[in-house]
From TrEMBL:
Record keyword Hydrolase present: yes
A molecular-function term among this protein's GO annotations: hydrolase activity
Keyword entries, A-Z: Hydrolase
Keyword Oxidoreductase part of the UniProt annotation: no
Family: Belongs to the Nudix hydrolase family.
Record protein name field: NUDIX hydrolase
Gene3D superfamilies: Nucleoside Triphosphate Pyrophosphohydrolase (3.90.79.10)
């Protein structure tokens, strides 16, 4: 069943997020204003080396006041392709230059309230080019063996949706090789 929309108005906007009210009508005829969070789109990179390890960052998220492992990721800049954004984010956040990026999976987390698009890529291999240029992203950067990832997810050491989607897809891919 498809909902009908009759218009939208912004309540708040800044360079990263727009909060809107959308005039909607549900299939049962009920009409009301639904909150929608419009976010800039995100590129995520799962970089896997020859030792079957994935490049990850240990970081704090102030919103949930929690620490967890994440894949390199970031916002896609105006005029930038998702693939280029994923490669750029790996370099800025980790100091590693990834090999060629291959599309891995596309996801829309929380699409009942947001329009955030996540483009997840995989790169096989990377070259260390120096220290990360983005100093506010993580406390440490490590190559994590893929065979440890499932247990880390179970222990809630990996919780971000972009990281989970990418890692679970990589694990699925690796299991059928």
């Amino acid at each position: 069943m498809q909902w009908k929309t009759y218009g939208e108005r912004q309540i708040y906007t800044n360079p990263w997020v727009n909060l809107c009210l959308v005039d909607v009508e549900q299939p049962d005829g009920r009409r009301w204003e639904h909150h929608v969070v419009r976010l800039r789109h995100l590129a995520v990179a799962a970089v896997v080396n020859d030792q079957r390890e994935v490049l990850m960052m240990w970081r704090h998220r102030f919103i949930t006041d929690s620490w967890a492992w994440e894949l390199p990721m970031g916002l896609i800049e105006e005029g930038e392709s998702p693939e280029a954004a994923a490669a750029r984010e790996v370099e800025e956040e980790t100091g590693w230059r990834p090999g060629p990026m291959k599309p891995l999976i596309y996801a829309e987390p929380a699409n009942g309230i947001t329009d955030s698009q996540h483009y997840v890529f995989r790169a096989d291999g990377a070259t260390h080019i120096g220290a990360p240029t983005e100093k506010n992203e993580s406390d440490r950067i490590e190559w994590i063996p893929l065979d440890r990832v499932r247990a880390m997810i179970d222990r809630r050491e990996i919780v971000s949706s972009g990281s989970l989607v990418g890692l679970l897809y990589v694990l699925m891919d690796e299991s059928i090789r």
